[in-house]
């Protein structure tokens, strides 16, 4: 419980108002893809492979990208609604924002308070250079099979500062990340 794939699936099911969905836990993305292709699961909230995008095997119903809502560059996804369109209330928008911050900064470097400013600046500049290096993007695409969409340090810091911290939103997130039934909308 609490894994981003699990939480994302439950969040989408909750926003769509699905009644009593069942969630398969404990499997990696490749294992879930095999189960989906074999008809062992009905749906998944996961990044599609190039093969799934090109084939007619899967039907796509919405776009859920992190950190911000933009239309996917692939023509097959351009007409689809973004998950934000299903978050109707301020509470739902804040919950979605909280999840997206967690996903966007999952692999961040966090420095302790009081780290000397010059060291912070050195690390930021190193990240900027690495994230502008074309070889990085080529290697990432070759290794991962998808385009890299990195966020610069300032973008991550801005997202973290804007993170909803309302107790009600945090409690709702904990419920969605847990094992129990989906909360009432």
Task: Characterize the structure shown.
By secondary structure, the chain is mostly helical. It has a domain at 1-105 and 165-185. It has helices spanning 4-16, 29-37, 50-54, 90-104, 117-130, 134-144, 153-161, 167-177. α1 packs antiparallel against α4 (90-104) and α4 crosses α8. It starts with a helix and ends in an 8-residue tail after the last helix. The relative contact order is 0.15. The model has no long low-confidence stretch (mean pLDDT 84).
Keywords, separated by commas or semicolons:
single chain; mainly alpha; 0% strand; 185 residues; 8 helices
Q: In short, what is this structure?
A:
With 185 residues, the protein is an all-alpha fold.
